[in-house]
Amino acid sequence: MIIRNAVLEDMDQIMEVYRLAKEYMVASGNPNQWINGYPARETIEKDINRQQFYVCEENGQIHGAFMFFIGEEPTYQVIVDGSWKNEELYGTIHRLGSDGKYKGIFQGCLAFCREKHANLRADTHQDNKTMQHLLEKHGFERCGIVYMKDGSMRIAYQLTD
Questions:
Q1: Which domain holds residue 142?
Q2: Would you say the C-alpha torsion 154, 151, 99, 43 has a positive or negative sign?
Q3: CATH of the domain at 141
Q4: Phi, psi at residue 80, to the nearest 5°?
């Protein structure tokens, strides 16, 4: 599997990955995380233009997508019912989605991000048991609760050396 910066020409495949990921979420008891058109095409286009959006590709087919950047995530400034493991510079993984047709998307994403920065943060919906399992299986620790711009709650995770 290759992980590379996404380009605008990838948008149709990226949106298909997210459509399939949403179907999986609903089928696995998580119907409320990615709703009301989220993630929006315009948001992904902005991330691509900022060079912060990546695709997981095998034989020319995109099977996964995610946003990653190093720096402060505004929605992580306030954490309740816990605390971050440290206040050092960190990388944030957002909007990780898979089409379910290629195994190892999470592991590939994590290895890619760890090469860029050892201190990582992520968050997920309380109903997203799959992502909670993957984060915890790969060494992320629950740190508390953060709130998104729309006020929705997310479980906050961090992985450090």
A1: 2-159
A2: negative
A3: 3.40.630.30
A4: -120, 165
| pLDDT tens digits, 20-45 | 999 999 999 988 888 888 899 999 99
pTM higher than the cut 0.85 = yes
Beta-carbon contacts of residue 23 (< 8 Å; ≥ 6 apart): none
Sign of torsion over alpha carbons 82, 85, 87, 92: negative
Q: What is the DSSP-derived secondary structure letter of residue 3?
A: E
Sheet with 53-58, strands from edge to edge, namely 2-5, 53-58, 61-70, 91-98, 120-124, 153-159, 141-147
54: region left, alpha or beta (phi > 0 left; psi from -120 to 50 alpha): beta
Counting the structural domains of the chain, the total is 1
